[in-house]
């Protein structure tokens, strides 16, 4: 696990701003990951239901979930590209 870096200013301890940004980005990325995971879990559940009920027609119910998955992945990709375009790491590199 990554460790937080603390700085001391005027007798107080503070978490470095770059660490806070990294944790915020991690939390936002985790939200996107969870949305995708929930959708993939639903896809798996429907595939298993099709198998148990021996009804290939049940696969049709997966199509809207695949559309959701494509949308969620697109949103995640767009967010990543925005973060990259904003040069989130540029400030961190300047401090090293």
Rounded mean pLDDT is: 83
How would the global form be characterised? elongated
Instruction: Report the count of strand segments.
Output: 2
Topology order in helix (H) and strand (E) letters = EEHHH
How far apart the termini lie comes to 21 Å
Low-confidence stretches: none
Tell me the strand order in the biggest sheet. 1-2
Helix content: 55-70%
Count of individual helical segments:
3
Share in β-strands: 5-15%
Cα-based radius of gyration, to the nearest Å: 21 Å
- Major sheet attributes: 2 strands, antiparallel
Structural class assignment: mainly alpha
Could you write a compact summary of the structure shown?
It is built from 3 helices and 2 strands. By secondary structure, the protein is mostly helical.
Overview of the structural elements:
This protein has helices spanning about 15-55, 65-85, 90-95, and strands at about 5-10, 10-15. The protein has about 100 residues and is mainly alpha-helical. A two-stranded antiparallel ribbon has the order 1-2. Helix 1 runs antiparallel to helix 2 (about 65-85).
Which descriptors would you attach to this protein?
96 residues, mainly alpha, two-stranded antiparallel sheet, 3 helices, 2 strands
SSE topology sketch:
Elements: E1 6-9, E2 12-15, H1 17-53, H2 63-85, H3 90-95
Antiparallel strand pairs: 1-2
Helix pairs in contact: 1-2
């Amino acid at each position: 696990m990554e460790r937080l870096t603390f700085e001391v200013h005027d007798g107080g301890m503070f978490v470095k701003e770059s660490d806070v940004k990294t944790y915020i980005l991690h939390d936002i990325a985790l939200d996107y990951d969870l949305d995708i995971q929930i959708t993939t879990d639903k896809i798996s559940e429907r595939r298993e239901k099709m198998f148990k009920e021996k009804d290939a027609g049940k696969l049709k119910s997966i199509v809207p979930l695949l559309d959701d998955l494509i949308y969620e992945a697109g949103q995640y990709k767009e967010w990543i590209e925005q973060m990259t375009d904003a040069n989130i790491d540029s400030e961190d590199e300047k401090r090293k």
